[in-house]
């Protein structure tokens, strides 16, 4: 009979303890908040008293703040100014290292060499990666002044039937020479627009491969394509399988794109190679069409970004290792 009363008394004492603790916390927090409020008001009063009251004073304060900010930016710029860091294989191990050393010497010739010249970032934007990336997205893509012709092509891979979307930009100087054939979209393509096939290519071609989860609509791809077309070259971006920027072309195969699969790039290069304009055979001098200079169009230059850079590098290594690199390939770069 006494145990329930003990439980009730213990419970009531516990509730009182909790209630007293809550009241104590509230009193202390109210005191701390009041002290903080009085301190902040004192600080604000001091700041208001120290602020200038005349236009000339405000101008002097603004000039001083701008000078301090500029000095800090110049300091950051000096800290980031440096030549690029270059990694390469040691000499004497393989037969290809002699060629690599010649390329390195050519690119690092003097102070103006690409690999030895000092890179100075721009103030306020180049000194901060977040600001530069934000500015690139906020300002958007610069519209090309040239009336380039944009062509979207859906190319089928012969290995497994995958659909690869190619976005072409053809400069006006080659627009009348390069022909495009309209084709009806494939049933599995699920596209509302007709696609075009670019043929009779008689100019250099820059083939771009974008990064992971990107496509041909991203700013860095459009900027590089614009740079190529402004120089009179033909630019084409290969959208990795499953990517097209418009969600129109679905991937009909179980395989997705990855950094180790080079079959799609190989297939695209082979099909573009067959579309390059060929030189007329010289029957008088018995010049065979199998010579390396049989192409009037081209060469094809490969440019990969991030995951695309790995694909381009792996493709060039595989083809060079087996001696099957097409003669129309002029080179490649991994960004």
Give an account of the 3D structure.
- The strands form two sheets. A six-stranded mixed sheet has the order 1-2-6-5-7-8, sandwiched between helices. Strands 3-4 form a two-stranded antiparallel sheet.
- 18% of the residues are buried.
- It is 42% helix and 14% strand.
- The protein contains eight helices and eight strands.
- The chain is an alpha/beta fold and 335 residues long.
- It is elongated and about 100 Å long.
Q: Order of helices and strands, N to C?
A: HHHHEEHEEEHEHEHE
What is Rg? 33 Å
Helix content: 40-55%
- Quick one: how many beta strands? 8
Termini, distance in Å?
84 Å
Keyword list:
335 residues, alpha/beta, 6-stranded mixed beta sheet, two-stranded antiparallel sheet, 42% helix
Give the SSE layout.
Elements: H1 2-50, H2 55-80, H3 97-107, H4 129-139, E1 149-156, E2 163-170, H5 172-175, E3 179-183, E4 195-199, E5 205-209, H6 219-230, E6 234-239, H7 263-275, E7 300-304, H8 307-322, E8 329-334
Parallel strand pairs: 5-6, 5-7, 7-8
Antiparallel strand pairs: 1-2, 2-6, 3-4
Overview in brief:
With 335 residues, this protein is an alpha/beta fold. The protein has 8 helices and 8 strands.
């Amino acid at each position: 009979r006494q145990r329930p009363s003990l439980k009730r008394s213990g419970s009531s004492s516990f509730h009182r303890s909790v209630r007293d603790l809550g009241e104590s916390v509230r009193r202390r927090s109210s005191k701390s908040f009041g002290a903080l409020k009085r301190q902040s008001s004192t600080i604000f009063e001091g700041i208001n008293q120290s602020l200038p009251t005349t236009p000339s004073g405000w101008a002097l304060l603004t000039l001083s703040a701008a000078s301090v900010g500029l000095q800090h930016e110049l300091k950051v710029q000096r800290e980031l100014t440096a030549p690029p860091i270059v990694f390469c294989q040691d000499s004497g191990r393989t037969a290809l290292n002699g060629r690599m050393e010649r390329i390195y010497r050519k690119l690092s010739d003097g102070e103006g060499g690409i690999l030895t010249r000092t890179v100075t970032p721009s103030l306020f934007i180049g000194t901060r990666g977040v600001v530069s990336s934000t500015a690139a997205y906020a300002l958007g893509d610069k519209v090309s002044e040239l009336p380039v012709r944009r062509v979207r092509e859906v190319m089928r891979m012969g290995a497994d039937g995958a659909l690869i979307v190619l976005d072409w930009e053809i400069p006006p100087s080659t627009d009348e020479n390069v022909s495009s054939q309209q084709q009806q979209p494939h049933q599995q393509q699920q596209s509302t627009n007709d696609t075009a096939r670019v043929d009779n290519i008689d100019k250099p071609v820059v083939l771009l491969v974008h990064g992971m989860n990107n496509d041909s609509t991203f700013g860095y791809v459009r900027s590089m394509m614009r740079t190529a077309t402004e120089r009179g070259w033909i630019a084409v971006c290969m959208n990795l399988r499953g990517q097209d920027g418009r969600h129109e072309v679905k991937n009909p195969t179980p395989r997705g794109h990855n950094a180790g699969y080079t079959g799609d790039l190989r297939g695209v290069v082979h099909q573009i190679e067959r579309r390059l304009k060929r030189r007329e055979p010289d029957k008088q001098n018995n010049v065979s069409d199998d010579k390396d200079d049989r192409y009037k169009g081209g060469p094809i230059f490969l440019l990969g970004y991030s995951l695309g850079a790995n694909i381009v590098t792996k493709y060039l290594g595989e083809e060079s290792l087996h001696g099957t690199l097409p003669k129309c390939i002029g080179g490649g770069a991994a960004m």
